[in-house]
Amino acid sequence: MDHKTLKMNVNGQPIEIKIDPRLRLIDVLRDKLQLTGTKEGCGEGECGACTVIMEGEIVNSCLVMALQCQNKSIITIEGVGARDNLHPLQESFMKNGAVQCGYCTPGMILAAKALLDKNPMPNRDEIKTAISGNLCRCTGYSNIVNAIEQVVKAGDANEL
Ligand code: FES
Ligand code: FES
Predict the structure, then answer these.
(1) 57-60 and 73-75: which strand pairing?
(2) Which of 6, 76, 110, 144 could form a disulfide with 98 if both were Cys (CB 3.0 to 4.6 A apart)?
(3) Best probe residue, ligand 2, of 39, 108, 139, 142 (max atoms within 8 Å of C-beta)
(4) Cα distance between residue 35 and residue 63, in whole Å
């Protein structure tokens, strides 16, 4: 199959690559750009492990064809904080025991970030709704909601 040129902005960096048009966004992120923080769970839009932010909205990158991202801006977990400068959500997840195996965590953080970018003062129900597409098999969710709520209460969301 003829390769096509894909141009997009990933974590603030302009990207231009030739790809097989059958690739999904998650394939390009993980296999072409080595951004392996984005996880694949179900591969069919059910688990949210592959969540990234596209043009300010969360998407399941397993359901988005890479060429649908032409000239779009994408944020992955690699674009949120850094190892020596964690994002307030990442700090709060750590402090609140919201990470166990960690497989769901990148998607959870991005779903929370997308919420707080739009609404820095969500209530607990709004937080639950925002992460309702993200499954976690380990934590029972309470600590995740607590972690996000703590960022909201600390006012850190205004600095995200
Ligand atoms: Fe995409 Fe599960 S891997 S929703
Ligand atoms: Fe293991 Fe959420 S921490 S799936």
Answers:
(1) unpaired
(2) 144
(3) 139
(4) 17
> Tokens for 136?
């976690």
Rounded Cα–Cα distance for residues 10 and 105 (Å): 19
DSSP state of 69: G
DSSP 8-state code for residue 158? G
Burial class (CB in 10 A: 0-12, 13-18, 19+), 61: buried
User: Tens digit of pLDDT per residue, the chain (160 long)?
Assistant: 799 999 999 999 999 999 999 999 999 999 999 999 999 999 999 999 999 999 999 999 999 999 999 999 999 999 999 889 999 999 999 999 999 999 999 999 999 999 999 999 999 999 999 999 999 999 999 999 999 999 999 986 555 5
Q: Could you tell me if the CB of 97 is within 6 A of ligand 2? A: no
Residue 144 Cβ < 6 Å to ligand 1? no
The predicted pLDDT at position 74 comes to 98
Locate 70 and state its tokens.
């032409």
Q: From the CA of 137, give the closest atom in ligand 2.
A: 4
41 close to ligand 1 (CB < 6 Angstrom): yes
Ligand 1 site, residue 62, Cβ cutoff 6 A: yes
The pLDDT value recorded for residue 4 is 97
